[in-house]
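To: structure desk
From: M.T.
Subject: fold request, one chain
Message: Could you run this one when you get a chance? Sequence is below, nothing fancy, just the single chain.
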Amino acid sequence: MTVIDGDVDVLEIDALSRERGDRFAARTGSDPRTLATPYRWFRITPRRLQARREADEPPGRTLLRDGRWLD
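Reply: Done. Structure tokens follow.
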């Protein structure tokens, strides 16, 4: 499991450049720009990232803090 804490920007469907939208569609096999239902993009700027495997995880699972990768 991955836990990401961060700031989220909600973008309208036409806010992304054509190149980014095309790249998303190619990588996911889905193009939300073609859907009839409303769709928005969510851009996350991570502030903290943790990787977990199980409940009794040892310390050191935080990989990114305050937007900076930890060694």
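Reply (cont.): The chain is about 15% helix and 40% strand. Let me know if you need anything else for the meeting.
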